[in-house]
Amino acid sequence: MTYAVWAVASLEPRLAQLVWEPLFEDHGFPLAIMGLFVVFAALILVRIFIGTLPRIIAVLDRFFPTAAEAATEAPAPQAAEGLSEEIVVVIATAVAMTLRVPHRIVHTRELSAEDLSWTLEGRRQHHISHRIHPRDSR
Amino acid sequence: MNTLDYLGTKAGQLYQTTAFAEFQIGNVVMILIGMLFIFLAISKHYEPLLLVPIGFGVIVGNIPSVAGMGLSVYDEGSVLRYLYLGVEKGVYPPLIFLGIGAMTDFSTMLSNPRLVLLGAAAQVGVFLTFLGALVLGFTPQEAGAIGIIGGADGPTAIFLSSRLAPNLLGAIAIAAYSYMALVPVIQPPIMVLLTTRKERLMRMKPPRHVSRRERIIFPIAAFLICTALAPGALVLIGMLFFGNLLKECTVTERLANTARNGMIDVVTILLGFSVGCSTNARFFLTKQSILIFALGAISFAIATASGILFAKLMNLFVTEKINPLIGAAGVSAVPDSARVVHMVGLKEDPQNFLIMHAMAPNVAGVLGSAIAAGVLWSQLAN
To answer: Is B169 near chain A, with CB under 8 Å?
Structure first.
């Protein structure tokens, strides 16, 4: 319970009024400005580094060619099983050219057994239309 | 003593050993809040992975413990106390950062580095709220811990408050995670208010391909740059980039998988649940907590607005314009704020996909808030 007593004791009523003096102390405006400066400085340096990264990579590539990388890079994913990427692109282009208005695919799903119920019903009726007779046991 | 008196005495003794004897209205309020969290998580899908553990933890933490039995997170030797040590000692947040690093793809940031600055701009909210908390009478340490809520980064907020203001840890953690969960509610009105329709319709150039070498070099170099300037961010940024290196080097796939799946899930459960357990009404329902929640909301709103306004400012100087909406993703609620940016953009133009662009300031925001936390910790620890 020691911790509990300490936690309650720390909840002193000292938040009753606005106090402006702390803003002008070391831990006020100066700290806020310095903090923002450090955040911006660090991220600007990161930005500069990223900007020079392609050049660093080009130099590295000259001395350490990336043949291994090319070999280990995952192959471009096939857009759909059985269809090459070119065919999918052609289909997408054809759809875009045909519609000629901005459109959005809201939802796609595979047909379930429920969607195929007409087909299934037709197939069922086809099957039961043949009456199966037991073989003549005579 | 007749039988009735005896039974009455025993019933009284039994009542004293139940939770009802110590129940207060505050506990009921907190239990209702816990249920609200669970409701929002399940029915509205607001950060369910966080709100369900926190919400249930809130319910658990508000069942009054019986005198003499160490049960709550505040009782020395209780099981919940041991689970809570990971929060109190700042162990869980770096482990979460390791998992986040193993999930994060920095490619979009590497392909468009100027968007990094939006992650820095959003940290204005942290420091303005820090000043606001000072004015309201909080100590500089408490103000620093409260300000970091504006980073919208729960683990960072917990880490910093465990270092600077452990007495406010429960309130700060709940506020930070609540605002992370409420990103889809808080951000869109600010985004719409600060941008014109024309700006929201802006399209950006698709990101370029980033080579594997770039993705491997980046975490090491960026770690060195960030921690050289803000050594206080060493633990959080170190774990973030370590996780990212595990992912990008491709030879430690098993470790990366563990970090981004099993490990982060376990730590999230422990962190969320034990933070929830720490919200006993006796310590949580105070004027301080209400102020922390109010300041957290202001901080988050300022951070969102700062990112958007900075993007508009950048547009004055660059030829390739930036859609200002993505500035809102400078807060580090990954990937929620990027997703919100995407959704707001889609409302104006169903063909404008902003999510990949928004991920750049979003991951830069993680870096920015960790650096801000490092600065505050190093300056206020003593």
So the answer is: no
- Is pLDDT of A81 > 70? no
Domain tally, chain A: 2
Measured distance CA(B184)–CA(A130) in Å, rounded: 60
Q: Point out the residue among B134, B250, B376 whose CB comes nearest to the CB of A35.
A: B376
Are the beta carbons of B110 and A53 separated by less than 8 Å?
Answer: yes
Lowest mean pLDDT among B64-73, B183-192, B276-285: B64-73
Q: Are residues A59 and A96 in the same domain?
A: no
What's the pLDDT tens digit per position in B83-125?
999 998 989 999 999 999 999 999 989 999 999 999 999 899 8
Domain range for A35 is 20-72
Instruction: Decide: A28 and B143 in contact? Cβ < 8 Å.
Output: no
What residues of chain B, 295 to 324, have a C-beta less than 8 Å from chain A?
Answer: none
Same-domain check for residues A65 and A100:
no
For residue B347, the surrounding DSSP H or E stretch is helix B336-348
Do A67 and A91 lie in a common domain? no
Within 245-264 of B, beta carbons closer than 8 Å to A belong to 250
Q: Which residue has the higher pLDDT, B246 or A65?
A: B246
CA distance B249 to B252: 7
d(CA A27, CA B127): 11
pLDDT tens for B350-368 read 888 898 899 999 999 999 9
The sign of the dihedral angle between the CA atoms of B179, B149, B96, B141 is: negative
Residue B372 DSSP class: H
In a 13 Å sphere around the CA of B300, the CA atoms on its Cβ side amount to 30
Phi and psi angles of residue A126, each rounded to the nearest 5 degrees, phi first: -60, -40
**How many CA atoms lie within 13 Å of A129's alpha carbon, on the beta-carbon side?**
6
ipTM value, please give it.
Answer: 0.87
Asked if the structure places residue A58 within a domain, the reply is yes
Residue A137 lies in a domain: no
B29-38, B68-77, B84-93, B291-300: which range is least confident on average? B68-77
Which of B173, B155, B187, B140 is closest to B300 using CA atoms? Answer: B187
Collect all residues of chain B within an 8 Å Cβ-Cβ radius of residue A3. Answer: 74-76, 81
- Any domain includes A11: no
Which of A2, A18, A43, A72 should be substituted to probe chain B, the one whose Cβ sees the most B Cβ atoms within 10 Å?
A43
Residues A92 and A50 in one domain: no
Residue A113 included in any domain:
yes
- Examine the domain organization and report whether A47 and A91 are in the same domain: no
